[in-house]
Amino acid sequence: MSETAPTPPPQTPAPVAGAPQLVEEETSPFTSPEQLDMFIRDGKANASDSDLPDGRFADRELSWMRFNQRVLEQSEDQDLPLLERCWFSTIFSSNLDEFYMVRVAGLKRRIAAGIAKVAASGLTPRQVLEGITAQARELTARQVRTYQEELLPALHAEGLHLRNWQDLTDYQREHLGAYFQHRIFPVLTPLAVDPSHPFPYISGLSLNLAVVVRNQQTGKVHFARVKVPQSLPRLIAVDSVLPEGADIAIEDVAETKRGATFVPIEQVIAAHLATLFPGMEIVESHTFRVTRNEDLEVEEDDAENLLTAMEAELLRRRFGPAVRLEIAQDVSDSVLNFLVNRLEITESDVFRLPEPLDLTALNDLHELDLPHLKYPKYVPVTAHGLAEYESARAADIFASIRTRDVLLHHPYDSFATSVQHFIATAAKDPHVLAIKQTLYRTSGDSPIVSALIEAAQSGKQVVAIVEIKARFDEEANISWARKLERAGVHVVYGMVGLKTHCKLSLVVRQEADGLRRYCHVGTGNYHPKTARGYEDLGLLTCDRDVAQDLTRLFNQLSGYAPRTTFHRLLVAPVSIRSGLIERIEQQIERQLAGQEAYVGIKVNSIVDEAIIDALYRASQAGVKVDVVVRGICALRAGVKGLSENINVRSILGRYLEHSRIYCFGPEGEEEVWIGSADLMHRNLDRRVEALVKIVAPGQVRYLLKLLRFEASDEVASWRLRPGGKWVRYTHGKKNQSLVDVQSLLMTNASSRVSGRSVF
User: Fold this and answer.
1) pLDDT tens-digit series, residues 456-475
2) CA dist 6 to 10, 267, 560, 635, 700, Å?
3) pLDDT tens digits, residue range 710-724?
């Protein structure tokens, strides 16, 4: 349900030199759609800077393609464990799938609607689309070469044999035939296409067989489609279907002395098509896969109930137009033309690739229990500041937080013994009166969701701000949001025109000296699984200023709060862009006054033109700027006269770099913020985001040191060159190996337990 608040100022406040850095005077960011549009337009009016050259922004979409290229390069790295290389190949594929479903689909929609607008990069949507297509073809061909020439031989050498049907022995094919009859055949549904059978709907990302059959009596040729069932394993472990291997589970089969043989399920189906079409001659069959527009468009202004509107839109998503066709490269022209016409796509949307299609199938191998082919296991430790109470007073996490602010660095610090324990303890504690929580992505079986339900059922006041518009998690979020409602949790479904992306928890506890509020502000989602694989930061505190800020922000999210003063928060869509630019300008003034100055930023993506222009001005003034960015980067680095003082690095590894850090000022005078916001229009204009200022000197030093180190020449990373190319550096000038920062941080966390920190 959506609420509106009084009108904000019509313009983003201009940066004021020397303005106070602790208290931010703000108007509520939560506005009506009309007011929000006006606010965004006015806020972007300053995005262009006539003193800076044209062509200074790299294209957002093409930059993303270069990011996915870096993911692909991980699969090509022969120094990585074999199954991790396979895993990176699957990530490359799934990333590209999502990119086509959302970004490419959006480009095509705008072009078709005639509302094509030139991007900040100066490229038209058609030019961007052509660039994406060219890069996608190049990178998918590169992925296939790596799979065929490197990964397959290496897997075979380790006893993991991925075979084609024709390469199997007669004995193996015989028993796979029996497996087909009993396990696969009953699930299949062949769909013919003729005057009485219209062309079937092809669901997005499903794997299908395009089959051409001939009626042996009439001689007529017909097209049919067979969908590969997603409920069955994509890779069939051949050994497990043989009589002597009947008791071998798929997770154990790779450990047998003879190794293991796998065959794609679509090849087993293709070999038995005669069973599906008795009396017909199988002329040809080829695998294909369709990607559809699966972005959601909800007209929230007209939606009386946002939850109901989202459920209806999820049904429409399944029938979005096709935007890409992947098909076996040996397909006949007649079949290809038939599919192109029926799917209403163009030849530029077709990717002819060697089989097997969809290399996310390699994830089946990554899930095998073969530790010698994976990263060494790492067990997170209890965070510094919480461990002191862990043994003697395990349940009293509140005592730890009362002593000091606790900085969390996941997954090196355990999510289970910090954030998860914090919420679970609050749910059980009879002195806790209320819990307020934002939830952007989580899981239905999450211990945090269970804890909120337990708290509500025990009579506590529980509020959950649930973002049901979290892309591709909408259906799951609706499901567990309903579950929360049934348990008595007050569920708020975000705000009209804004996604609630901030990561906040607030616990109100009755103590001997009165009510005390305990807070968590983070950079990552409250999702136990991703917390083990995403690098994120968080702050646990009972600081009065932060507590007051979160109380007011939650009131804005759930009700009316037209004017608010924040002490240690910057909040989008009102003050993050202006607050960051103000601090960049302060560093420019320091540099021009002959004082040491510094700006350091670590984000997932940087696109916002106003922020980038501020960084360009800082570079021109001589300020040293470090940017560590995992994904999209529209900033150009090292360009003479524009950005020669800007150093841009990208780090990819076993963990997904997900934290956001903003540092301003030289060592000893630095100001450091962490939070949920990336430097993208959607984060700064269309989402509720929060950054919190870190004030504990030791924590400030740690974050500044971390950012500077990750941006240094000592760390293995990709470096952005002036021409826009990303170059990977794993060795230094004397061929010494550069530091894997994630391995160093794992060592540091483990060593900290024994008092021997190395970072």
Assistant:
1) 999 999 999 887 654 555 56
2) 12, 62, 9, 36, 37
3) 999 999 999 999 989
501 is catalytic: yes
Contacts of 693 by beta carbon, 8 Å cutoff, 6+ apart: 22, 568, 569, 671, 672, 673
> Token pair of 252, please?
């154990």
Question: What is the separation of C-alpha 55 from the centre of its chain, rounded to a whole number of angstroms?
Answer: 28
Judged by DSSP in three states, 388 sits in helix
104 in Cβ contact with 126 (< 8 Å) = no
Task: For strands 207-215 and 190-193, give the pairing.
Answer: unpaired
- Which pLDDT score is estimated for 110? 85
pLDDT at site 741: 97
For 255, residues 6+ apart whose C-beta sits below 8 A from its C-beta are 369, 370
| Nearest alpha-carbon partner for 93 in 54, 738, 101, 231 | 101
For residues 104 and 132, what is the distance between their CA atoms, to the nearest angstrom? 8
CB burial class (10 A; 0-12, 13-18, 19+) of residue 202? buried
Q: What is the DSSP letter of 18?
A: T
Coil, helix or strand at residue 170: helix
For residue 58, the one-letter residue type is A
Please classify residue 170 by burial: count the beta carbons closer than 10 Å to its beta carbon, then call 0-12 exposed, 13-18 middle and 19+ buried: exposed
Compute the distance between CA of residue 433 and CA of residue 462 in angstroms, rounded to an integer: 9
Whole-angstrom distance, CA of residue 559 vs CA of residue 3: 7
What residues contact residue 299 under an 8 Å CB cut-off, 6+ apart? 309
Q: What is the pLDDT of residue 372?
A: 94
Query: Exposure of 110 by Cβ count < 10 A (0-12 exposed, 13-18 middle, 19+ buried)?
Result: middle
Q: What is the CA radius of gyration of the chain?
A: 28
Residues present in the chain in total: 759
Which is catalytic among the residues 409, 501, 520, 658? 501
Q: Could you tell me whether strands 503-511 and 432-439 are parallel, antiparallel, or unpaired per DSSP bridges?
A: antiparallel
Distance CA 679, CA 735 (A): 35
**427 with 460: CB under 8 angstroms?**
yes
